[in-house]
Fold this sequence. Notes:
- The protein is of the alpha+beta class.
- The chain contains nine helices and 28 strands.
Amino acid sequence: MAAKQGTPASALRVLEEALGMDLTAAGDSAEAVAAEGAYYLEQVTITEASEDDYEYEEIPDDNVSIPEGEEDLAKAIQMVQEQATDTQILEQKTVLPSKQPTPEVIEDFLCNFLIKMGMTRTLDCFQSECKAREDLLKTQKERDFHRMHHKRIVQEKNKLINDLKGLKLHYASYEPTIRVLHEKHQALLKQKMLTSLERDRAVGQISGLQATLKHMEIGHNYHASEIRVIPNSEKENAPEGPTQKGLREAREKNKCKTKIKANTKDSEFPTDMQPNPNLYLCKENIGPAKFDYKLNNIFRLHELPVSCIIMHPRKDILVTCGEDRLWKLVGLPKGNVLLTGFGHTDWLSKCCFHPSGNKLATSSGDTTVKLWDLSKGNCILTFEGHNHAVWSCTWHSCGDFVASSSLDTTSKIWDVNSERCRCTLYGHTDSVNSIEFFPCSNTLLTGSADKSLSLWDARTGNCEQSLYGHMHSINDATFTPRGHMIASCDACGVTKLWDFRKLSPIVSIDIGPSPGNEVNFDSSGRVLAQASGSGVIHLLDLKSGQIHKLMGHESEAHTVVFSHDGEYLFSGGSDGTVRTWS
């Protein structure tokens, strides 16, 4: 039986390429296979050119039978082709719906198989690949997270860029308005300068006329009689214009001021100060300190918040200041209003009695300090010079000087007799919120929003010492009646006590987080009261360190003060009321 060699050989080659097996050895063992009776291959030699030109036909291999127990070649080829198709699908990344087996099970099976077969190198490689795959998945997750985070950052960056562009456009839209306002400002400054020149010219003319009148009164009447008689008779019948009226009023005012100031000069700071009278009072006061205050009465005195309460130095009278631009003199214990002061054009911040008790100084948001005569209830003097709101004021113990502190970072010392600013204190870098004279001395204490306390010599205007320790803006500072200690409170409720002799801190008490608006000692100097922004009045026992609370204000407490005997306590709040505690 003759069979052509090409067909089986080609099938074997395909199977060999697919399975990666060396099937050529089968050709070498053809005789062994034929001996077993399975099948055999007969080699037929065909010459290249036949002499008889006979065309040989291919013998079909239909009768080749495959014995049992051997693989079907056609099925093997079909299986190889299907594997090739699956490989192409996988290379094209086409996901076929199939049930995914559990990776752990497969890995365990493979590991057990490799261990059983003793294939340790393959097992090591397999485990390394599994670990590398886990690291890859972890790295991919971290990459995806950082990519998402990066996208979010880019979005926020783009949003900020858009906001900056909008702000630039908004700012650019304001530039023309600012330019127009600046031009108007310059024009008003020029107009103000021209007005000042005209005023100075008019004052000079008035001064010249006054000098002429003086000379005429002294002995030159015979020169002026010929000039004055006829014109005066004509002017009496002629109507007076607004310019002549203004000049006449200015002449009369200037004449009055000239008469007053002719006999006044700058006051002198006292050199030999009397000892502090509170030193002896405190030694005699041996009674126990009082802390069990109860709310006794409520006086509604102002329509807007109460900013300050002070006691008269000798009588049972107190004065309250409010943000409604008024101050009121109140009688105790009934709370009847004895006198009301009008004159300020903005809220009142502080008030202070003259040592004699017959005058009152008030500071206001209208940048002025006013002096009032309590016997008449009218303003007798106004000090102008601060550029911003005035926060506080205080009298010197001699009664000839008033000191004030302002939002413009300066403090000023005013001479009551010469009616001028004697000295301006520079040094603080933020608003000066509190000022007070040391009892019976020329030393000033200021508390500022720059978190520092400063001690000044009022005679020279020099800062002698600064105290640091507060972490927030200082709202108020005061001396004990004996003057040996300083108490201060800041915007976060921290109250500090300082030794005035050593100029060092003693203790710090945190009563926050609500701000401490004002601190005051009782007459014995053993109890310190603090008015808090939470509406609570805190009483600090300086001997034991205990803190007692007075609850009664429905809103913020702005100010607190003791009566002279310590039996009463008065507090003012943002609701316009004054509360009496006894």
